[in-house]
Amino acid sequence: xxxxxxxxxxxxxxxxxxxxxxxxxxxxxxxxxxxxxxxxxxxxxxxxxxxxxxxxxxxxxxxxxxxxxxxxxxxxxxxxxxxxxxxxxxxxxxxxxxxxxxxxxxxxxxxxxxxxxxxxxxxxxxxxxxxxxxxxxxxxxxxxxxxxxxxxxxxxxxxxxxxxxxxxxxxxxxxxx
Length: 177
Hints:
51% of the residues lie in helices and 7% in strands. It has helices at residues 8-22, 27-34, 38-45, 53-63, 68-72, 88-94, 113-120, 123-132, 150-154, 160-173, and strands at residues 97-102, 143-148.
């Protein structure tokens, strides 16, 4: 999957890469400094993963940007759903079956509030994401089939307590079929 190069998220990722390279750091070296995973940094820089305010603040401090990266996250305040989401929400609300493969994060329909908050940071976006989950408890919910990369289950998003809660939630709602 190639990220759209001109989404605000992808542009933000390129800014992070610019500041990281200007500081003479590899992704691994930055990961050591900010205590976030190298795979998260890679995903953010390529525009595949969103940056949280906490992530931006840690990068600002490590890269001495004067707060530029956190300020650049302001683009997220104007939208509840990302631009790439398009009309998917409308299709999702009437779907009979949904299938998804997630190599980088837990699917939004399965995320706990704490996990979503660790990814999105913004309360409006978290509320919108969790609101989508109502389709799973409607009178005739869609069949949801998810393939989640093992890497996703091992990524430490939001800390150990957040991941424990997220993994327990997935285990609780999973059904063998």
